[in-house]
Amino acid sequence: MSTAALTTNAPTNAPTNAPANPPASLDMRERFYAELDPVLDAHPAADVVLAVIGAGYMQRAIARHPGRVFDIGIREQALVGVAGGLALAGRRPIVHTFAPFLVERAYEQVKLDLGHQDVGALLVSAGASYDLSSAGRTHQTAADVALISALPGWTVHVPGHADEASELLHREAGGTGRVYVRLSGQRNSRPHPVDGRLHLLRDGAAGAPLVVAVGPMLDTVLEATAGLAVRVAWTATPHPLDAGGLRALAGPAPVLAVVEPYLEGTSAAAVAAALSDRPARVLHVGVPGETELRRYGSPRDHAAAHGLDAAGVRRRVATLLT
């Protein structure tokens, strides 16, 4: 099948064209769609590959860049396979759909068509963890970051703000590596540097426990730890983890918690490796792997049930102080 035959046509009832200068009020997913047109302008080798999801939001990019936006249909394995073919042909595929379909459903193709072929691609997911809780278990995944991190040669970014997502998209669209960007409905009130490093955002007494917030968990962690004798650090790049930064902040006898918006313990191996020569006490806070909620509810309901709201995070972090 020729790539021309795969070029998507936006439905007539699609949402309004993305603005040339996106407003700051857009959430991460809306900002991603709005930025695709300027990204394709700036990076002639980039193509967008979709599996229906998002096609209706890309009228401007489709109209201005014919032959560079491909809708494969509801065929997620083929979605990644086409991306692998484009990469082998020297293109830079930007691959997008909901997280459970992009990572879990197409995992073998991610492993083989990209990783085994040793080609680069930029995978951008929406619907992180339980963002799409009202759609049921089929649209939920907390294991996506752990799965991608298990494959060699990948970088994982988990932005906490639409400005961070925009910066990562523009930067990685011009790269050559294998990159996973996880967009979330949860967001922090302001952006922070997405340079791959660990940043100390709330200082405290020397030797005080360190709480590391990943991506959109920062505001929740800051609220949860208000008044507690802890320091708070943040990163948008959990894989590869900034091991040097962690060692510098953790100190010689680390006591720390890692608060992640996905499967609890995803960063455990990286943290353990970074602190392997130190007597460390480490708490991992995330979506519990042994719990599967079977009621739909809202994302806020799921966060509270998993202990990932401010009250739940505070209960867990407080155990470090006893």
TrEMBL record:
<feature type="domain" description="Transketolase-like pyrimidine-binding">
    <location>
        <begin position="26"/>
        <end position="191"/>
    </location>
</feature>
<feature type="compositionally biased region" description="Low complexity">
    <location>
        <begin position="1"/>
        <end position="19"/>
    </location>
</feature>
<dbReference type="Pfam" id="PF02779">
    <property type="entry name" value="Transket_pyr"/>
</dbReference>
<dbReference type="InterPro" id="IPR051157">
    <property type="entry name" value="PDH/Transketolase"/>
</dbReference>
<feature type="region of interest" description="Disordered">
    <location>
        <begin position="1"/>
        <end position="23"/>
    </location>
</feature>
<dbReference type="InterPro" id="IPR009014">
    <property type="entry name" value="Transketo_C/PFOR_II"/>
</dbReference>
<dbReference type="InterPro" id="IPR005475">
    <property type="entry name" value="Transketolase-like_Pyr-bd"/>
</dbReference>
<dbReference type="InterPro" id="IPR029061">
    <property type="entry name" value="THDP-binding"/>
</dbReference>
<protein>
    <submittedName>
        <fullName>Transketolase</fullName>
    </submittedName>
</protein>
